[in-house]
TrEMBL record:
Belongs to the UPF0502 family. InterPro entries: DUF480, WH-like_DNA-bd_sf, WH_DNA-bd_sf. This is DUF480 domain-containing protein. SUPFAM superfamilies: Winged helix' DNA-binding domain. It comes from Photobacterium chitinilyticum.
């Protein structure tokens, strides 16, 4: 693909995709609302602290690339609002299913994800029956006839699941990642270190579940 979003561009597009579904009454977004969405502390990796001028510059770049459209709030209004033209509109090259769009949205906002993370973190955007269905959607995006749109990353040492990453921010050096993943870790072959790695993986899974429960509680009380 010829698309290579910067970190800020990926964040802005991801926010517009997300808010289109989760807060339709507020979409399209004003500059202030878009800036707030970009700087959210939940559902964002990394957490950013962008000012409105930076977000506006990013919006202008995306407008020039025809990924964002500016609209007015109503007849006679001078308040500018912004909506994406990234996918699933009459102006878009990309047409994705609801699940594909949700998975890409989460990766634009949070970077590489496992199928389990995609299934959990898209709960406000779409429904997945199970992790296998999420994995099938990700594999479909990786093998898409007009793609690929995502890539399956080499498995990290001590990790059980593969992660996937979108390709809208440029190609990914899989060979370098594979070499890094295969590099021996000091003491990594001992039974004790294996148990520690397993415990660390279980703790990370618990942290993920707790974070998602907090996000769900926040969405229910907001």
């Amino acid at each position: 693909m010829d698309i290579c979003f910067s970190q800020n561009e990926a964040r802005v597009v991801g926010c517009l995709l997300e808010k289109e579904v989760t807060t339709p009454d507020q979409y399209p977004l004003t500059l202030n609302a878009l800036t707030t969405a970009c700087n959210q502390k939940s559902n964002r990796e990394p957490v950013l602290s962008l000012d409105e001028a930076t977000v506006l510059d990013t919006v202008e770049e995306l407008k020039s690339k025809r990924f964002i459209q500016e609209v007015t709030a109503g007849q006679g209004s001078r308040v500018a609002k912004y909506q994406h033209r990234f996918c699933n509109t009459e102006f878009s090259t990309f047409q994705f299913t609801k699940q594909e769009k949700a998975a890409l949205c989460v990766m634009l906002l949070r970077g590489p994800q496992t199928p389990g993370e995609i299934r959990t973190r898209t709960n406000r955007l779409c429904d997945f029956a199970d992790v296998k269905e999420a994995e099938a959607v990700l594999d479909g995006l990786a093998e898409h006839a007009k793609g690929p749109y995502v890539v399956k990353l080499p498995k990290e040492t001590g990790k059980r699941d593969f992660r996937y990453m979108h390709l809208f921010s440029g190609e990914i050096d899989l060979e370098a990642l594979a070499e890094q993943a295969a590099a021996p870790v000091a003491g990594g072959s001992s039974p004790t270190s294996q148990r520690v790695a397993k415990l660390e993986e279980e703790v990370e899974a618990m942290k993920l579940e707790i974070a998602e429960l907090k996000d769900l509680l926040e969405s229910l009380t907001s």
